[in-house]
Amino acid sequence: QSALTQPASVSGSPGQSITISCTGTSSDVGGYNYVSWYQQHPGKAPKLMIYDVSNRPSGVSNRFSGSKSGNTASLTISGLQADDEADYYCSSFTSSNTLKVFGTGTKVTVL
Amino acid sequence: QVQLQESGPGLVKPSQTLSLTCTVSGGSISSDDYYWSWIRQPPGKGLEWIGYIHHSGTTYYNPSLKSRVTTSVDTSKNQVSLNLSSVTAADTAVYYCARRLFGGHHMDVWGKGTTVTVSS
After folding, report:
1. N or C: which end of chain A has fewer CB within 10 A?
2. CA-to-CA distance for A107 and B12, rounded, in angstroms?
3. Are residues A102 and B105, on separate chains, in Cβ contact within 8 Å?
4. What share of chain A is helix, strand, coil (3-state, %, to 5)?
5. How far apart are CA B25 and CA B89, in angstroms?
6. Could you tell me if A102 lies within 8 Å of chain B, comparing CB atoms?
């Protein structure tokens, strides 16, 4: 089971919106609504930002939103802020015997 | 609220067994509602799922590690343990434990992680 494919980096200016893609297959992203997104600041543990494609946990800003089309899921950050600068990982359930797969990770830079 | 804390040796010799513990506070590890997960992250690299364990003893492991991984639950200590045998330098990583909802596939609470280096 290969990792889900994410762009290595995405950047934007404060206040702008950016979108991070996460591409898998029909065995994972495309086949199930079990895509989640994690934010990781340097030296810190990952933090759950989105689960089940588009649901936000309590306490996560509504500037973060998720969606899916076919085999590609997306995380959109609107009103970009300095603290959004971090690594972001998608993840999905997979019907392969691996069961769970993470994305390659995307570094978000706030210009 | 629930907190998770990983602990264990920071240095392990090649071919030996890596042993880590995750202590859960603010909640019961015996809850039917959760699986307890192990995830690792090699230096400068992405996240890799290791496995899940439920207090009932049900386990799921990443096939790439399955032959070397064992996990267990100690309900009296509210702890989950990870053993990874025959380690090599490729097992050097930050190891995280995390909570996964029984009916879901996301990890909603994470420990801070513990760094393990494999070196002689």
Report:
1. C
2. 31
3. no
4. 5, 50, 50
5. 32
6. yes
